[in-house]
Structure formats: C-alpha cells, structure tokens
Amino acid sequence: MERLETRELAYFIAVAEELHFGRAAARLGIAQPPLSRAIKQLEHRLGVTLLDRDSRRVLLTEAGEVFLHEGRKAMDAVAASARRAQRAGQPVRRLVLVMKPISDGGLLGDILSRYEQEAEAIPVEVLLCGVAEQAVWLREGRADVGLLHAPHDDFSGFDVEELFVEGQVVVLPRTHRLADRETLHLADLEGETLPRLRGQDDTTATGPVVQDSTQLLQMIALERTIAVLPASASHYLRRELVCVPLVDAAPITAALAWPERSTSRALAAFVRVAAEIAEKHRHGTSMDTPVRSARATPQS
C-alpha cells in the first residue's frame, strides 16, 4: 500500500468527527464532491469500509473507529514534530519541563541546581499545567519532558525514568470531622464530597470542578471538598489544612517521561541527573510512608 498523506487523514478525521459530509466539507473549506471521492479512494486503498453511509446518516464502522483513533495520534505527531523542530531552531535552545504544581516531591530544586553543572545543560523552562495535561503537552510538542504520575497519567508512547513512589493522604480542612484521625481508610471517605477534576470522568465525585492544585487547595480551605493527594503534597499545605495518611490507597509513582527515541543530549543529561537526585533522596528520607508533617509545620 502506498504511504498515506496527511491530507487524507485530515479529510477522514473531519468526516468521522462531524458524521456529515456537508459539515466536514465546510470545516475543511472544500466542496463536498471531492471530499466524498477522497474518502472512497482512501477506503479502496485500505481495503476496508471506514464509514457506513446512506442518504440519512453517516456512521463509523469498527475499522473506522480504529482509524480515527490512530489517525488523530498520527496528526498530533506531525504537529508535534513541527513544534519541536521550530523550538530546536531557535537561537537560544531551552529544555521545557511540564508538570503539575506541587508534584515534584521536593526534588526539582536539587535537580535544576545539579543539572546546571552538566556540560550538556541548557536553560530549563518549567511549565505548570492543570490536571492530566502533562502527557497532552508532551504529545503536542509543547514540552520536551514531563513529570507524570501513575496510575493517573497515560505513559503510552513515552520513554520513562521512575523517580519515586509515595503513598497518598487525605487533605482536609482543620474543622473536618476526620481531621483528628491518625490514619484513614478509603471506606472512611464514603459519602464525602470529592472534587471533579477537569478532563477526567468520575461519576462518583460531586464536588466543585477544579483544574489545578492551587484551585483545589483553595476549595478545601473553603470546606467545599476534601481530596486524596500524593503524600508529598503535605509540604505545600495552607495553614488551615491538614493531611491524614490513607493507608489502603494505591501508591503513586512519579516518573519523568519524554517522546520515544529522543536523541537530545541535553534531555539525556537532565534525566540522568534527576535519577541520581531521586536515588540519593530514597536513601535519605523515605517517601513511601505518608507523614503528618503538615500538622507540625504548617505553611501559609
């Protein structure tokens, strides 16, 4: 089979998303007849039917569903490669790191200081994103490396270096009925108001919609919700908040992730330094067991 063109993918994705040839043609800025011919030719080349269509409706076949999913990824990869090439061609090169606020376990300062001493080091720009956006920004080519967390983030398509594993805590306002408990179990949270995270489907959550950690902590302080967060979040708590270890929650794995088969020496040096700092930290203060340090040393 001949190599597919990005134009063909763009045509199919438009029809698959609109499920209407007229609307797809208008979206693409072309006439409907050539769009219909292009889709038929694409199906002929692939040897499968992508769309079931008649005079009243257009539906995706099973093959069409798969091709839409893979086609979107391919188009994203093309766009990302263009962004990376543009950034690589800038007069001043930068290494762009994307992460959620308060998600580095206290390691980033040491990592950046140590990285500056590397011969391959280039300036690092830290981008703070909202919930579940790190992987998206990486795939879009807006960042070179990201700090992701399993099991919440999608690691597919990335090379990964695990940095640390930590437990989880429940973050509560000091006035909450559970705030004086030494530990909590998941069952203790039944009936509690939990936040709805933007971009994530959770039918059990009934609390306010939040998009980042700063907004979440504000909502907890206002007694609008409580939240389950990685144990290292205790270092960033507001004065009116406390955290209690959640003993039966799955551990959180923090890892650096970057596009597969990267050849960047600057990125390789950054990952190497991060792994070394994380290893030293593991031999110092363990992060595997949550600690209620925020009670003793609250921060404003």
Can you give me a brief rundown of this structure?
The chain is α/β, with parallel strands linked by helices and 300 residues long. The protein contains 9 helices and 12 strands. It comes from Actinoplanes friuliensis DSM 7358.
Please state how the strands of the largest beta sheet are arranged side by side.
4-3-5-12-6
CATH first level of the largest domain: which class? Answer: Alpha Beta
Q: What letter string, H or E per element, gives the SSE order? A: HHHEEHEHEHEEEEEHEEEHH
What's the helix count? 9
What is the terminal-to-terminal distance? 63 Å
Kindly identify the CATH topology of the largest domain.
Answer: D-Maltodextrin-Binding Protein, domain 2
Q: Give the overall silhouette.
A: globular
Question: Strand count, sense and closure of the main sheet?
Answer: 5 strands, mixed
Low-confidence segments: 286-300
Total domains, how many?
2
| Coarse structural class | alpha/beta
